[in-house]
Specification:
The structure holds two protein chains of two kinds. In chain A, 54% of the residues lie in helices and 20% in strands. Chain A is α+β, with helices and mostly antiparallel strands. In chain A, strand 3 and strand 4 form a beta hairpin. The mean pLDDT of chain A is 90. By secondary structure, chain B is α/β, with parallel strands linked by helices. Classes of the chains: A alpha+beta, B alpha/beta. Adenosine-5'-triphosphate binds next to strand 2 and helix 1 of chain B.
């Protein structure tokens, strides 16, 4: 207790220097936390807009489907399997989908589109598709109409009520074709999907392709914060591995993982540089402090204060300074994180274009996750403790005779 | 039996190319209750001798006994404890911890020895009163004159009930009024409490008040006079 008080008093004997040191730690932690919260927030949004609101964190397919996404690699829908999956721990929803390609023709215009068959109710629970309707209405069960991506609608000047013709090759190469009425227009998060996807009920699409009761995927969403690997391990024994494949989103979307990794490493380097700069600052403070107080330490050693006790006081000083800086930085960053979580920064220019090209909204809502301040706070604490080893060694080398010279 | 027994002590500094022989066979015995000045020209070895007696430095040759214990070969960490429990130190200047008040500085030694709070405070107050600083108990060193700081240092040196107090030129930075005042206090403590003082000095006024004067010259004792 006395050592704590002594250390506290010692910090404030050179007010300006301690203040500068604390402030530099504070700003380093602030910037590290703010920057990473922004980056990780953007990735979370990217993942959510692609994975959470469409792909699902886990998908189950017929074996070989992901390699060769054809109708021949679909599987017979099984109520038993779906029930097994839905009752697995941490699974919040599991929806069936059938996917394929077709040519759309409207008037003189023809273009390629991807068709997705869904269960309207279950899909809405899964990806809130209904909320993405910008014009017209959502599908009802057994609906014969279709929903089209906003991008296609704009490019082909389609509107609700228009009739489009779809032509394709169906299951086992039978020819498929049909006329469909546009029931609604949807704005999808991913611009690639927005420009190519058409939804209809699973039943309509199965009829169109002649697949019977087959589907191409079961998409699974998980409770927030749960671990996909654990859930996959729990589902695995319920699957016939000869028949099915199970994948998490990182396997399905390696490009997304790559983009995030590449972008994130830039941020990590920035943080590293920031840490290096404050390390020099902290080290400078320690050097000055030791030089200034060598004589005083000599006196203390002479009158009988052990090195261990002197070291205790000096380490407490370092810990207090670091704690003040780290605590201040974390506290100071909170309001900013909350503000930019509620009012995300929207990127403009090249960065925004790049993101859009990959189908992401160029918005950066900050992540409020406490693991970020925890990581950076403890990293800075470690750095400053590591650097105070220098003072420990200086004190260990100290001779009481230093006191009698000045 | 003598309190401090220095036997044939040599100290050679090997820090430069040419070894410096600072003490060349010093023999000395100091008894309890003495008030001893060590004098001599600059470079004669006064500081070196006091450092060795205080366990701050060790002799190259010879032996040293303090309070019946041979400390010649104690390890440095044992010496720290030995100093804490047996010797009070007053240095030439900057003795005190700058962030602590006079009272806290005096308590500091007792704290290191593990005294309980009440006893610490009581003794610190009593000692500060004895050195005439009753009004300054809550002042920081920077708020006191050099003489007042040295008096706090004396109070601190006495706090732990040491066997003796060592002071290397305690008055070197003081004006004559403060010097007299500090000496009055030391003499009084010596007479009333039989506290042993060993100090070095250049100052004739200080030498005049010592009861025993040991003169060093070129690392050897030239004279040893009881007055
Ligand atoms: N650390 C050291 N390294 C080398 N030589 C030293 C060292 N300390 C002292 N000396 C030498 O030892 C001799 C005695 O020095 P010491 O400091 O004991 O003298 P002193 O009597 O205290 O002098 P002063 O009155 O100036 O304080 C001197 O010749 C000095 O140069
Ligand atoms: Mg000297």
């Amino acid at each position: 207790m006395f050592y704590l008080r002594l250390a506290w008093k010692n910090i404030w004997r050179n007010k300006r220097r301690s203040f500068i040191t604390i402030a530099s730690i504070l700003f380093a932690v602030f910037f590290a936390v703010f920057m990473r919260s922004m980056q990780l927030g953007m990735y979370a949004k990217m993942i959510d807009s692609v994975v959470g609101s469409y792909y699902g964190y886990i998908q189950i397919h017929s074996k070989g489907y992901w390699e060769e996404q054809s109708l021949d690699n679909t599987f017979e829908r099984s109520a038993h399997l779906e029930k097994e999956i839905k009752t697995t721990k941490d699974v919040v929803s599991c929806v069936p989908r059938l996917e394929g390609f077709a040519l759309l023709s409207f008037g003189e215009q023809v273009r390629g589109v991807s068709l997705t068959g869904i269960d309207p109710n279950e899909e809405n629970n899964f990806s809130s598709l209904k909320n993405k309707i910008t014009k017209g209405n959502y599908l009802i069960q057994e609906d014969k109409g279709v929903l089209i991506g906003e991008g296609i609608a704009e490019q082909l000047k389609l509107k609700c009520g228009d009739s489009i013709a779809l032509i394709s090759q169906g299951y086992h190469a039978v020819s498929a074709g049909g006329k469909y009425t546009i029931k609604g227009i949807v704005k999808l998060n991913s611009s690639r999907m927005n420009n190519s996807t058409i939804f209809m009920t699973l039943g309509s699409l199965q009829e169109f392709y002649g697949t019977g009761n087959r589907i191409s995927a079961l998409a699974i969403n998980l409770k927030e914060g749960s671990n996909a690997a654990n859930v996959m391990a729990a589902i695995n024994p319920k699957l016939n591995v000869q028949e099915y494949e199970i994948m998490d989103w990182t396997e399905m979307l390696p490009e997304l993982v790559q983009i995030i990794k590449a972008d994130s490493s830039g941020g990590e380097i920035m943080v590293l540089i920031l840490y290096m700069v404050i390390s020099f600052g902290i080290f400078g403070t320690i050097l000055m402090m030791i030089a200034e107080r060598k004589y005083e330490f000599g006196i203390l050693l002479s009158i009988g204060m052990s090195r261990l006790r002197i070291i205790t006081v000096v380490l407490l000083e370092s810990i207090m300074i670091a704690l003040l800086g780290v605590g201040g930085g974390v506290l100071f960053s909170r309001p900013f994180l909350y503000y930019f979580n509620a009012n995300p920064i929207t990127l403009t220019g090249k960065a925004a274009d790049t993101l859009r090209k990959f189908g992401f909204e160029p918005e950066m809502p900050t992540l409020l996750d406490f693991s970020i301040p925890l990581t950076h706070g403890s990293a800075v604490m470690m750095i400053s403790l590591f650097l105070s080893l220098y003072s420990v060694f200086s004190i260990l080398k100290l001779k009481p005779l230093e006191a009698s010279k000045r | 039996m003598s309190l401090i027994q220095v036997t044939n002590v040599h100290r050679v500094y090997n820090e430069t190319d040419i070894p410096v022989s600072a003490l060349k066979g010093v023999n000395l015995s100091i008894n309890e209750g003495e008030f001893t000045a060590i004098v001599g020209p600059s470079g004669s070895g006064k500081t070196t001798l006091l450092n060795i007696i205080g366990g701050l430095d060790s002799a190259t040759d010879g032996s040293l006994e303090v309070a019946g214990k041979n400390i010649t070969h104690l390890a440095t960490n044992e010496l720290i404890d030995f100093r804490l429990n047996n010797i009070g130190f007053v240095f030439q200047a900057y003795n005190l911890i700058p962030v602590l008040t006079a009272k806290e500085n005096v308590e500091f030694i007792m704290l290191l020895q593990g005294w309980e709070k009440n006893k610490r405070e009581q003794r610190a107050m009593q000692l500060l009163e004895e050195v005439g600083l009753k009004e300054k108990v809550n002042s920081k060193p920077s708020q006191m004159s050099g003489g007042q700081q040295q008096r706090v240092a004396v109070a601190r040196a006495l706090a732990s009930h040491p066997k003796f107090v060592l002071a290397d030129e305690p008055t070197a930075n003081l004006d004559s009024a403060s010097t007299n005042n500090l000496l009055d206090i030391m003499v009084e403590l010596n007479q009333r409490e039989q506290m042993t003082f060993v100090f070095s000095t250049h100052d004739q006024r200080v030498i005049d008040r010592a009861r025993r004067v040991i003169t060093l010259e070129d690392g050897q004792i030239k004279s040893d006079i009881y007055k």
